[in-house]
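We emphasize that the prediction below concerns an isolated chain of 503 residues; any contacts that depend on oligomerization or on bound cofactors are therefore not represented. The input was used exactly as deposited, without trimming of termini.
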Amino acid sequence: MLLTVLVFAPASVALVLLALPRTTPDAVHRTAWTATCALLLAATAVLWAKHGAAEGFAYGTRVRWIPSAGVGYHVGADGLSLPLIALTCVLFLACALYSWRERRRVRAHSALFLLLQTTCLGVFVSLDLILFFVFFDLSIVAMYFLIAGWGRAEAARAALMFFLYTFLGSLALLLGFIGLYLAASPHTFDMTDLTRADPLAGRPVAAGLVLLAVGTGLAVKTPTVPFHTWLPLAHTQAPAAGSAILAGVLLKMGAYGLLRIAMPMLPGAWRRYALVAVVLGVVSVLYGSLVALAQSDLKRMIAYTSVTHMGYVVLALGAAASAAAPGGESARTLAVSGAVTQMVSHGLLTGALFLLAGALHERGRTYDMAAYSGVAATAPVLAAATAVAFFASLGLPGFSGFVAEFQIFTGSLGPRPVATTLSVLGILLTAALLLRAYQQVFLGPPRLPSAPGSPRAFPDLRPREAAAVLPLLALATLVGLAPRPLLDTVEPASGLVLELLAR
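Result of the prediction step, given as a token string:
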């Protein structure tokens, strides 16, 4: 019941906001949105503290929904989902604080973000495939309207491309879910029942086809090369808060689906085709970093680094399927727990980067890095926060990115030495592109694009912008310096996934 309240509270508040008279002051909508996000984060912290390092699902609710089709309302949370639930609540609160600057259609803007939060939380607590699919699909709808309604000049085209690509991926995902349902006896969409039954064991061809459908649908959302082409335009045209949620939360749905659905429900097929995941992961790492290195648009550059960082996740999940890994179970557990840590780290840091890029755009009215120089002289707090986010994103020790990448490389090097060695190049390329971007925008002689050749006020981070961004960086630092609370939650659940994978 607790998870149900957590999931549907944002949507309930959104409906209340939409029911209020149009003359209601914008401050009421902003305050209600921010307060709801803060309360949800506090509730999530309580749930996590009570769960601790326990194994298995907690706070479960299971009731009949469409019994004739084997569909139920089944939710629960474990060590894989709790960190992502917490990440979702943290990022939505940050976006609520950041969006106090929004002046266009504030009621609809606040309501859409609240509805989107319900869909995101729903994905991470769902233990029924159809329930997972419903939330997965509705997140696409909410993000479509946010991009189209509050994006930049080409927002309509970006929103349409985002919707069509991701909706096509979700259709492939649904086909895979139907394949699992038909293979189960008795027929069911319940994820815990399907995990126990392993319905496609002994049927390699059918299992391979189902994995192809499920994997394709999830790869589009992750995003993995070559299914990533919707991402740069969507990020470039989306509002800053929308980009933060898109990168920080929605991209995690694909990787989470691989952990929750593909690996435990199709263990034989995942082991058989794990090399494909490894190759796609390495290609995503190298391609994303090389293309990011060539960008002159700050937002597009950050978008392509997301392809790189999520490529590490796919590499780790593929490497974890190797039964002959040196170090055995501990190495594979490192790879899986590193993948989850990377999802959390990437969400915090990339969310912060997109909000900082939005703050820069508000002042200079462009994302073209060549238009800026010496911003640190007039906006030192903005420059310092961006420096922390950049250094954390390139995997500097003391930040969450280092903890995640260290686990991934340590767990993946034994089973996949060549692939892991190649993926390390992604760190060097990421360091090069981030440091070059920082030097170009923030260092050197001052030049502000909105007022060439004349002095003009270029304000530093405002209090609400700082309140949105700085806690994200503080959490990334906390995970980097004291990762034990996160790892104590993630590692037992990672071990259970590997036990299921070894069947």
